[in-house]
């Protein structure tokens, strides 16, 4: 993975509904190895294992809470970049040529009971 982001959905009277991103849980971007001319990349950046400690500054031991993590993978070529290189076509500047995969953890639940 490249980056870990932590999320805490807000607990309202009607349940969990609005997510808040914890910017302090974000690690610096790793960069990219994607070659825009050849659509090749190497898996020489990022980390095969990523460990982090998260402390919720708004934690209330009397209130239920749920947390989850999102891991961002290193950037890789998107199919549009492969097509651009293979067929020699020009892509509009708005067309994304690189993607960054994401994985989500299972929820981590806290209950005061």
Description:
The protein has 113 residues and is mostly beta strands. The chain has one domain. Helix content is 8%, strand content 32%. It has one helix and seven strands; from the N terminus they run E-E-E-E-H-E-E-E. The strands form two sheets. Strands 1, 2, 3, 6 and 7 form a five-stranded antiparallel beta sheet that branches. The chain has a two-stranded antiparallel ribbon with strand order 4-5. Strand 1 and strand 2 form a beta hairpin. The chain is elongated. InterPro entries: DUF3604 (IPR022028).
Quick tags:
5-stranded antiparallel sheet; 113 residues; elongated; DUF3604; 1 helix; DUF3604 domain-containing protein; two-stranded antiparallel ribbon; mainly beta
Query: Mean pLDDT across all residues, rounded?
Result: 81
Number of domains: 1
**Sequence of secondary-structure elements:** EEEEHEEE
Q: What's the β-strand tally?
A: 7
Structural class: mainly beta
Runs in which pLDDT lies below 50 for 5 or more consecutive residues are 12-19
**Rg, nearest Å:** 19 Å
Cα shape: elongated
Q: CA-to-CA gap between the ends?
A: 34 Å
Strand content: 25-35%
Total of DSSP H or I helical runs spanning 4+ residues: 1
Query: Major beta sheet, specifics?
Result: 5 strands, antiparallel
Protein name: DUF3604 domain-containing protein
């Amino acid at each position: 993975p490249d980056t870990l982001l932590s999320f805490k959905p807000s607990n309202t009277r009607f349940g969990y509904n609005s997510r808040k991103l914890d910017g302090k849980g974000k690690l610096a971007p790793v960069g990219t190895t994607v070659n825009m001319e050849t659509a090749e990349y190497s898996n020489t950046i990022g980390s095969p294992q990523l460990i982090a400690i998260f402390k919720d500054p708004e934690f209330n031991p009397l209130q239920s809470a749920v947390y989850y993590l999102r891991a961002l993978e290193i950037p890789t070529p998107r199919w549009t970049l492969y097509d651009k290189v293979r067929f020699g076509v020009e892509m509009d500047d708005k067309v994304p040529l690189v993607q960054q995969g994401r994985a989500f953890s299972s929820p981590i639940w806290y209950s005061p009971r």
